[in-house]
Specification:
Blueprint lengths: L1 H11 L6 H12 L4 E4 L6 H11 L4 E5 L6 H5 E6 L4 E6 L6 E5 L6 H13 L1 E4 L2 E4 L5 E6 L12 H4 L4 E3 L6 H10 L15 H12 L5 H16 L3 E3 L3 H17 L7 H12 L4 E2 L1 H5 L4 H11 L5
Parallel strand pairs: 1-8, 1-9, 2-5, 5-8
Antiparallel strand pairs: 3-4, 6-7, 10-11
Helix pairs in contact: 1-2, 1-3, 2-10, 9-10, 10-11, 11-13
Amino acid sequence: MKNIQSLIDNVEKVIVGKRPVIEFAVISLLCRGHVLLEDVPGTGKTMLARALARSVAVDMKRLQCTPDLLPSDITGVPIYNQKTTDFEFRPGPVFTNILLADEINRATPRAQSALLECMAEFHVSVDGHTYPLPKIFMVLATQNPIDMAGTHPLPEAQLDRFFVRLHVGYPSLDEEVRILAAQTLRHPIDDLQPVIDESAILAARDAVKAVHIHADVATYIARICAATRQHPDLRLGASPRGTLALASGAQGLAFLRGQAFVSPDLVKTMAGPIIEHRLIIRPQAAAMGRTARDILREVLDQLPPPI
């Protein structure tokens, strides 16, 4: 527990004033989930991913997504070895612990789909062979929702693979002044050192799974997701994968709070980052200005939490 708090504190040295966002990213790491960082340029999406990766003593690789990116550029490709007269598999950047996929929506759907199997099954299939990924494998993807020129929106199937979607947001005036002062001579990321290793992360994962979920709270989680599927303004509600993610995320937040059980308020806190990006709004509702956040808040207000 203390190691995880030191991890959050370490990342906050670089990402000023965004502790809730950092906590959600760390919870995703502990729940073996993936993070989609979506926000306008310059808010620290890539820096958050880099700071998290540097704070954990594991391997990290960066994948700059471009329109000419091929699936083999991500997963790897068999290369003919003249000495052995045989093909040898050369692993791609996905064979790492933390993969930073920068501007993922600039890659074509064909390249985006190469990450689907990796994110869901934690292995890669190339040329009839299956290669397992490391025990700690996490995709941190960034995308810019404003600039749509030359981008390919992520399909619903791939959005559902992301454990959470986070918005970093602009800093406050005081926080921006602190950022200016911290970067007067050099960037804090240059001096950031690892504060936790792989064994501590794996131990924390086991501790998260041990957090108790009462049957009434589990029913409450299932009712939330079921209500999104029946909402008249939604064409598509949360999937069963979303239900499992919400339960796991609530366990992760309870672990960070030092609680031995999941309470309904923790479920509500995690519902936004985990559920919103899985909801597909009907065009008529979107035309009236309805958002996934509004609909989810409506669902949470209508469902009484267990006592």
